[in-house]
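>> Question from a student workshop board

For tomorrow's exercise we were told to take the sequence and the ligand below, predict the bound structure, and bring the output to class. My setup keeps failing. Could a helper post the expected result so I can at least see what it should look like? The ligand is flavin-adenine dinucleotide.
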Amino acid sequence: VIRYGHGADEFDTDLAWRSRALWRRLEQQAGQELLIETGVLWLAREDDGWEAACERTLLEREIPVQRLDLQAVSSIYPSFDAQGLRFGLLEPAADVIHARRGVGTLVELAVARGARLLRGFARPAGNAVDVDGTRLSADRVIWACGPWLDRVFPALVELRVTRREYFNFAVGPGWGRDVPVFYDFQGPIYGLPDVEGHGWKVAPDSATKDFDPDTTDRRLSSVKEQEARDYLSARFPALADAPLVGGRVCQYELTADNEFVVAPHPEHPDVWLLGGGSGHGFKHGPALAEYVVGLLEGRHTALPRHALGPRQPSAGLRSAALDFEPDEVARAPQA
Ligand SMILES: Cc1cc2nc3c(=O)[nH]c(=O)nc-3n(C[C@H](O)[C@H](O)[C@H](O)COP(=O)(O)OP(=O)(O)OC[C@H]3O[C@@H](n4cnc5c(N)ncnc54)[C@H](O)[C@@H]3O)c2cc1C
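>> Workshop helper replied:
Here is what the output should look like for this input. Compare the format with yours to find the bug.
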């Protein structure tokens, strides 16, 4: 899901909005649908919390946003219970992204323009790269290794890689592309409409245990399934008994403060580390890449918020769940 609301944060709000324009351009180049404009509906539990901050920032940036009273919110979905909510905040221009197709498109377009795709296990070798014994050199090297970034650079990067699960429930007409994604940030839980016949996706977003993306079991748990179903029953009562038709286990990789890592290697200034974004690194990808190109070309300087080094634990920007324990900040590496 690409949404523009990031609380009071202007940088990430602008980055996401710019990214949408670039995704649209990629879509035209690829000649196939990459974004589905379902909109996103934030379900606010406080009068002046995260959603109100999103609203102020979006209004200021002239990004489409609309505050809805609970009656209006309740009329959006075929079945809805507004208990515990104060209001809804609709971002009508927010999209669901075809993730797999988006990555495939990126690779195809890059290769068509002269990029060479190599598959192998890469290790840093000074300011070069060793790929399965072959040394590759370049003017600039960027390591964007997702949840493996802190394994490649354990002395420089600290990530918390945690497990998340989502579940797909079979739903009838009225729950497809015409209704928005919902985010109950304080839930914390979110869900996607049935955009492609895979069912209504419900993703409990509470922090869970550490996850090894190479070895951890990816079977779904009955505990999380129950959490998803309990929420469905309470919030979308007509879906209380919707049959489960699928689901997946996925990982988040987050820094302590939820900010990206975009920083040069302290010993090799032409080597850059990029990560800590979870799915947001992907959604913001086109604009984030544009920003990184500007850094590499010296058009602007790296922001301190993305630097290596200790971070203060905080949730919010990418996930409502605090994946880092506050005392862990003491272990965070110094740049
Ligand atoms: C099933 C599933 C569903 C998900 N659903 C969502 C969702 O709905 N919303 C959301 O926000 N996020 C979701 N995620 C998480 C999201 O996919 C990731 O957070 C995101 O892909 C991270 O992007 P990235 O480019 O930083 O890293 P990745 O997509 O993980 O890419 C990193 C790449 O680097 C490669 N790599 C790493 N180390 C090395 C090395 N040493 N040598 C060579 N290659 C290396 C890896 O093989 C990988 O291809 C989901 C994940 C899964 C698995």
